[in-house]
């Protein structure tokens, strides 16, 4: 019989051994794994839990408490990371029990949503997690990045700037769907790695944008062939963006490519030439520009609580009485029908059989829809939803739409 409980420091060290074996590609010494996993002592919103078979630790995870912007409403959400299973206990449903505990742990604490980065998207899709916004990786010659009139406000940042970076980030998070609030400690930790470089748009002590990057050697191993790999980019407005791009553009004498990871699928419109220099044509004259990856996944774990969390969100001024029928095999109590009356965009969950249209869908797709990672028309086109009256498709598509897909700039 399995049991799950919060780990003490000695048990976290034991979990570090399991993690080291579970992720052999992370080629760091065991003591480094233990050091990385010491965050429980540093952050009160991160905690490790272990799954025991009698007295033996055979798996575990790290849980994160988040304050998340969901459609411009701050909600409490849970995240899970560092899920690891002892090699001797694979295929014994350990990971399944871990994720089930994770979901119910946050459900009992009043969260309406949880999220994770999947080691296998199909594994988590079966457990009701829906895809979030994809990331696009662009590989650009520096000369093809925009060049503004100045880079005078671009400065290298240090640990002394961590608090201002955090202040700026949280100001953006407060108005950006999907972003999670962060603490100054999290920004402080960015400076712990010598290879990480951070530049910011800084006027006085105020930061209005930043780039987090590191250098990568080219495939040839030659010391004169190097790329810049941008892992984070955030900016207040176009003026800040252009100065950051001018900084990168000016590296063309020594940098082969600038590699930028962004969740903005429209980033190619900022570029003079968006091609990634693979010289591949996908079909006809369609040049390869970026590679795309699916990552963050969301899961609604309590539908009534979700609509309570979103009670001040305006669903685009729509008037409609919707019967939402959710299929959820992993959380049986989530499975069922909910009648929601939308009046000028304001939602109210009611105990009534009075509705105009019934929308039936799986919880994974609903989780992607309610976060605005996907629109209803796309789900309908691909046969992932059923409508009792197709005439309401446009209405419901507008109801669940947003100008922005959810962004996530938090690794966990």
Automatic annotation (TrEMBL):
Domain N-acetyltransferase span(s) in chain numbering: 2-146
Keywords: Transferase
Domain of life per record: Bacteria
Pfam families assigned to the protein according to its UniProt record, in alphabetical order: Acetyltransf_17 (PF17668), Acetyltransf_9 (PF13527), SCP2_2 (PF13530)
GO biological process: aminoglycoside antibiotic catabolic process
GO molecular function: aminoglycoside N-acetyltransferase activity
UniProt-recorded name of the protein: GCN5 family acetyltransferase
Organism of derivation: Clostridium tagluense
